[in-house]
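Worked example 4.2. Below are the chains of a multi-component assembly; read each line carefully before continuing.
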Amino acid sequence: MIHKELADMKLRSLVILLLGLGLFFFVAPLHEFTVEMLNEYVQFENMPRFLERFIPKNFIERLSDWSFYIYTQWFGKNLGQFVPILAIIMAFPLFARETENGTMEYLLTRNSRKRVFWSKACAATVVLLVQMLVFSLLPGIYSWLASKDFKYEHLTAYTIHTLVGALFWFTLTMLFSVMYDDQVKPILTAVGILASTTVVGIFKPLRFMNTYSYILGNRIISTGKMDVTYTVGLLFLTTIVLIVSYVIFLKKEF
Amino acid sequence: MVLSVKNLVKSYRNKRAVDGVSFDVGKGQIFSLLGPNGAGKTTTIKCVLGLRKADSGEITINGSYSYLPEQKEMYRYLTVEKMVHTNERISRSFDAKRALDLLEEFQIPLKEKIANLSHGMNTLAYLSLVLAEDVDLYLMDEPTWGLDPLMRNKVLDLIRTIPQNGKSVFYTSHILSEVEKIADIVAIMVKGRIAEMDNLDDLKEKYVACAVPKGQRLSGYLYRSTKDEDIYVVKRSEANGKIQPADFDMIFEALVKGVKA
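Applying the procedure described above to all two chains together yields the following structure tokens:
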């Protein structure tokens, strides 16, 4: 059962892995080039004010530090913004594709619902976590290979934020994949929730709704520490959503 | 008893799809659930398998089973051969060699993708997977639908041999001729209820066709009306008028029409 699930995910996982690796090697080797380019901008006498506001001089100075650059540009930007999207891509077809194609009957008459659910959920979770772990550890591995001065002490915090954020969006999308009978609705619902929580999170009292702020590691950059409360909160929600998905799957008619 | 269903009820919103259905499938028996489209056959079989949740009733399966669904959907991106190997990993009682032999017998190309198979070939490929399972009960929903006459006969012959090993078959169909060929027990399902259930020979023995002058009523099922007479299919004990033997087609049609006098 798990072998079939892994085979189903093979292409999707490889594409995501290659895209992630490609993205990293687009960001990491361009450190010096990026800093130089930004320095040139700020030296312009008539630099637009909005640009000054968005790229403060002290930020560019800090960017010349490799650790700051890779943490903010990889976790805090390139990887971070894709984490929920990648998790949604991994989760949306998990159950909905089988239901839509009519192959769920094939599975359920050969295995118990319990086995079908956990095989699918576990196989996809492991694949997702391995992907995110690889992406998270890339800065460390690259720094070691390229003899860069890298502050490894923040890597664990960023990795946990990435993994937990990915797991949350994966589980939430999986719930919709269990609920709906076609593949379009789970992806639309998940993307809709992602967009709306991000927008709603602009307002100060609802800032907690914006998972991006957590996944991008804003707290780690400002305090140097992991956001434990948010991590525990997301893990709690993930567990609840997982249990709800399982109960719905046990009761669903095919 | 391999399968026992008692007072099964299943509704979809306000529509009662299965309404108090009860039957038993014995060991080594071929049980056919016959009925027109929408009679509730597929819902019954899905409730038996747990794919649909029954509103009430009791379902007992004693032993292992294998299922051929109405929509024979497999993984379209796999080749037939890979589908067999995938099935081998998923199913516990599956004999891959037996499946490959059946596929060869049905002349299904192993290297062909499932997506490229014709409807009939797809049915035969799915059937090969199902028949290669070593189980106590084979549940088949319209197993011969879309097959050419030669393949249909071949499949019916295969199904006919299943009880020789003490295994049972529960299958649904709306094709009378094939039911007559292989079924031991026939249940005719109409509008969610079993209108009649018996051994095929006893069923044919039980009913006769009676032609009575137009307007005269008989306690049975109105089968046909001509200019001068009404033809009823009635139980032998209720027979009246010009009595003729009723063939299975007549009995089925009269029961399905359900125009009870």
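Take a moment to check your reading of the output against the notes. The interface with chain B takes residues 1, 3-4, 7, 101-103, 105-111, 113, 251, 253-254 of chain A (CB under 8 Å). Residues 135 and 253 of chain A are 38 Å apart (CA to CA).
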